Amino acid sequence: MNPLGTTTRRLLVTSAGLAASLALATAPAQATTANVGGQVGGSNTYYGTARTITADGSHLYLRADSGGIAMKAFWYKCSDRSVRGTDREVGSGARQRLGSGFRAGTVFCLGAAADVVSPHRISWTGTLNWNVYS
Question: What end-to-end distance do the CA atoms of the chain give, in Å?
Fold first, then answer.
């Protein structure tokens, strides 16, 4: 004879499964990193690689090296360039926050401009982090 009974065992198994599902659903989002770079000139250059925020309220950072040439970078909504973040001075190799408090599902692209006279362009490389909180 089973002292717990079939109904009690089902309830315990169901409760354990529900608890495990909730624990997985509330696990912290994983930061996303990509190597980025390209050519940039004196006017805004819009890079078309779309990236998606999956961690609600998270931030976007860029660490860029432009070989000592002053450079600015910004995020923009890939489907509407008029929706964008503030220009941030980058290029020194220091990590700079490009934006914060993004909603999960936000799709963004990068834009940049360098302190050079067109048609001259410079090459830059960097590391982009998103879905991060610090």
Answer: 56
> 């004196």: which residue's tokens?
42
Task: Tell which residue, 98, 10, 101, has the closest CA to residue 61.
Answer: 98
As given in the structure block, the two tokens for residue 131 are 């879905």
The identity of residue 74, as a single letter, is F
Question: What's at 54, amino acid-wise?
Answer: T
Whether the CB-CB separation of 62 and 95 falls below 8 Å is answered with yes
Q: Which tens digits make up the pLDDT trace of 30-83?
A: 899 999 999 999 899 999 999 999 999 999 999 999 888 889 999 999 999 999
pLDDT greater at residue 3 or residue 95: 95
**For residues 112 and 134, what is the distance between their CA atoms, to the nearest angstrom?**
23
- Look up the pTM and report it: 0.76
Q: For residue 91, which of 72, 116, 110 has the smallest C-alpha distance?
A: 72
- Whole-number pLDDT of residue 117: 76
Phi, psi of 8 (to 5 degrees): -65, -40
